Fold this protein.
Amino acid sequence: MRTRRQDLEVIVVGAGLAGLSAAAMLRQKGVSVQVLEARDRIGGRVWTSRLWHDMPMDLGATWIHGVSGNPVSELADQVGARRAGTRYGSARWYSQDGTRLSVKQGLAEAEEALDRIRIDVDDAASDMSLAQAVRGSRRWAQLDTGRRKLMRKWINTFVEHEYAADWEQISAWHFDEDDDDLPGGDVLFPDGFDQVLAPLADGLTIRFNARVRRIAPHSQGAAVDLDGGETMAAHHVVCTVPLGVLQSGAIEFAEALSRGRQAAIGMLRAGLLNKCCLRFDRVAWPDDADWLQWLGPRDGVWGEFVSLAQCAGIPALIGFNAGAEAAEVERLDDRATVASAHEALKAMFGTGFPAPLAGQVTRWGQDAHALGSYSYNAVGTQPKTRKKLAGADWDGALIFAGEASSNRRFGSAHGAILSGRKAARRLLKRYA
């Protein structure tokens, strides 16, 4: 094994938002830093496909959730990125046979019922899954079949899709501990989310196709072993790989991590939210609705589509599946996935609904460099769990960052950025 010795103060593992944010801040302060990225591109779970040259499709991160005071907004401003708002209030809801539903009161009742159920389970002896809490509640027992279906759909839309988690696995006590909403509504990027990466990556030294296999303490501080037998050493290593990769053991840590960090890695879960992007020759659905919601025959399967007709002016729909349903659909090939989504749309709008011209499908659970979409709080997770994941080991030589370590903003792009900046500030104190 050959060791490459350099005048490196910091090695950052991962060129996603957290890694780029950490590296950018360090470089601006004059710290020598190199970024190692296993993929052949920057961004990680920010992935804008330009397969359709006139229609960029964000297959990973899509929205700025709360534009005011959001670091993603700051980056977008720097490059003049065009943005378009989407509103849940514009959604149209459809029954299994395509009948349009008026659900305002029913959704309010479902939200109120879930709030009361969570208050009730606060007195339970231990945490439980959200599904267990709901099904075991007095309120659920009082609902008829129709209202149960609507409540289940509300949970799928506003919990499972929000947190990329199945209600059978997510914590009833702490699933929404990220509830630190920024004001200003939600916007997406008609020209692609990847635009915000440019100001972060500008001037950085990034090495692609550099898969880290092992991180170890070193006389210089810490060292990383790469595929091919090369070792690189630096004073500090900032590890920003996704939670799923940490849990897989794809990176070996030569010396044990702190007990709290090991416990946090084992307790948290990598969630799954997959997309099926469908391109059409025309808009064949209501063009004034940003969201299409379907109460289909199977809970959570193709229950939600976002329309790009109004916000971006293009004839495209993106279908979502989360949790167990996402894992099931992920096993289909592209053709079968697109066909399944089309069947759902025909059930909503009639058999004459046009077939898509093309489709693009994500499988984040099968992506070796992600192994999931973003993290969620599983049963047993505590508010302090993510704090234990963040921070340093090996006398400060190894530091962790990423959306999973962002205590109240996990699962978000801005949470990843803030986590990376926090890690950089921790290091800069050492160089002050």
